[in-house]
Amino acid sequence: MAEKLTGAARDEALTDLREAGWAEVEGRDAIQKTFQFKNFTRAFGWMTQVAIVAEKMNHHPEWSNVYKTVEVTLATHDVDGLSPLDVELARKMDRLAG
Ligand SMILES: C[C@H](O)[C@H](O)[C@H]1CNC2=NC(N)=NC(=O)C2=N1
């Protein structure tokens, strides 16, 4: 089971993630990012790729899609907060978005 991110490791991860456009959710230990694509096909294609990765990790995003926009929130429900799995999934999402 994943462990909650704390201390220096958490600060370091959040610094990197902020640079990549992620932000902490207010009132909740979670991160969010809005991804914009060229069109719906690109957005949904990316979601499909991420879904396969997430299922392999057994770590699943909270997300919603409207046309070419995908709003993502990442948290580890099992620990009610951020864990290294969220950082890993965030980086994989960024990489797949190009
Ligand atoms: C039983 C199962 O392994 C767990 O519920 C997994 C599934 N996917 C998950 N996804 C996320 N984001 N957080 C979790 O804690 C989590 N737990």
From TrEMBL:
GO terms for molecular function: 4-alpha-hydroxytetrahydrobiopterin dehydratase activity. It is an enzyme of class 4 (lyase). InterPro entries: Pterin_deHydtase. Signal peptide: none annotated. The keyword Lyase applies. It comes from the Bacteria. It holds the Pfam family Pterin_4a. Keywords: Lyase. It catalyses: (4aS,6R)-4a-hydroxy-L-erythro-5,6,7,8-tetrahydrobiopterin = (6R)-L-erythro-6,7-dihydrobiopterin + H2O. One of its GO terms (biological process) is tetrahydrobiopterin biosynthetic process. Belongs to the pterin-4-alpha-carbinolamine dehydratase family. PANTHER family: PTERIN-4-ALPHA-CARBINOLAMINE DEHYDRATASE. HAMAP family: Pterin_4_alpha. This is Putative pterin-4-alpha-carbinolamine dehydratase.
